[in-house]
Amino acid sequence: MDQPAIRIESLEKTYAGGKQALRDVSLDIPRGQIFGLLGPNGAGKSTLINILAGLVVKTSGKAMIWGFDIDEHPRSAKRSIGVVPQEIIFDPFFTPRETLEIQAGLYGIARAQRQSDALLAAMHLTDKAHAYARTLSGGMKRRLLVAKAMVHSPPILVLDEPTAGVDVELRRQLWDYVRQLHATGVTIVLTTHYLEEAEELCDRIGIINHGRIVANEPTRELIAKTQEKSVVVTFDRDIGEVPTNACFENIELVDERTLQIMFRKDRVNAGEVLAALTAAGLGIVDVSTRDPDLEDVFLSLVSADTAT
Ligand SMILES: Nc1ncnc2c1ncn2[C@@H]1O[C@H](COP(=O)(O)OP(=O)(O)OP(=O)(O)O)[C@@H](O)[C@H]1O
């Protein structure tokens, strides 16, 4: 079987001040996927990514990038990954084209093989090719960072919170580009706070909390794991007393004629919930159900982990 794009084994990181940012993290990211790494603020996402990028030194454990151990083959590991950092950093006195040429030079890419113009075009920056980087808008700077991460055509592109604070239009453009890259076979790893984005974009999701991996599964399976489902029911008359039943996990009045009932789909089905309402003497006129989404899964995993 193919090696995973990234393999992490028992990775630990304790910062100089004593903060333990990663605890026994083991994780495989399969090739050819869009993998989302989610977690609350301070969970350890950037630490993990910065170790892979060679920017933070791990305390112990192993990491392999495209089959190359970051300790034994650091250069090959580094060549296999492009990282778009969270912070926008580059020399404001270079133009976007110069920035890409310099980066390509650092990777020892011969002039004839450089693809600065194609990358600028892909990121819609052609007309800014010769402008000073300091004159670019925030969104353009971010696109330039993506282009910079791709100069050496790595098989893996890692984006750390690329759409934080970015407007909707630019976010859409960035994801279009990420999808295009993915379609050409590039493995994508991204961290995001936007659960909807992860749900829409990622094949697989890892959740990290307090430096520990608490989930790592295909997105659909992860979402299917949440057992709580809700049904909103409208009745033909005002509800006097809110009914009770053992199969309701929770019941709330939405308005005088509408109730929202939470139930566990591993214990009962919506039909049984409705039957319990009818038995309470209420006439049903409308019903809608809502399936759990990633936010529900995320909150339940993170709060369960915090409780232990
Ligand atoms: N250089 C550092 N020195 C000491 N502690 C650090 C350092 N960098 C990060 N930390 C701490 O390590 C923990 C993990 O931080 P990290 O930045 O990896 O989290 P994160 O999940 O990326 O959070 P965010 O989403 O807010 O960026 C935090 O408690 C943070 O304060």
Mind explaining what this structure looks like?
It is a single chain. This protein has 308 residues and is α/β, with parallel strands linked by helices. It folds into two domains: 6-223, 3-Layer(aba) Sandwich (Rossmann fold); 227-291, Alpha-L RNA-binding motif (Alpha-Beta Plaits, 2-Layer Sandwich). The protein is 32% helix and 28% strand. It contains ten helices and 14 strands. The protein has a six-stranded mixed sheet, with helices on both faces. The two termini are 36 Å apart. The structure holds adenosine-5'-triphosphate. Adenosine-5'-triphosphate is lined by residues 15, 17, 19, 21, 39, 41-47. Keywords: ATP-binding, Nucleotide-binding, Transport. This is ABC transporter ATP-binding protein. GO terms for molecular function: ATP binding; ATP hydrolysis activity. Residues 6-235 form the ABC transporter domain. InterPro entries: AAA+_ATPase, ABC_transporter-like_ATP-bd, ABC_transporter-like_CS, ABC_transporter_ATP-binding, P-loop_NTPase.
Biggest sheet architecture? 6 strands, mixed
- Please provide the count of β strands: 14
Detail the poorly predicted runs: none
Strand percentage: 25-35%
CATH superfamily caption of the largest domain: P-loop containing nucleotide triphosphate hydrolases
Mean pLDDT: 89
Percent helix range: 25-40%
What would you say the CATH architecture of the largest domain is?
Answer: 3-Layer(aba) Sandwich
Count of alpha and pi helical runs:
10
What is the C-level CATH assignment of the largest domain?
Answer: Alpha Beta
> Could you say which small molecules are bound to this protein?
adenosine-5'-triphosphate
> Could you tell me the radius of gyration in angstroms?
24 Å
- CATH structural fold name of the largest domain: Rossmann fold
CA-CA gap between termini: 36 Å
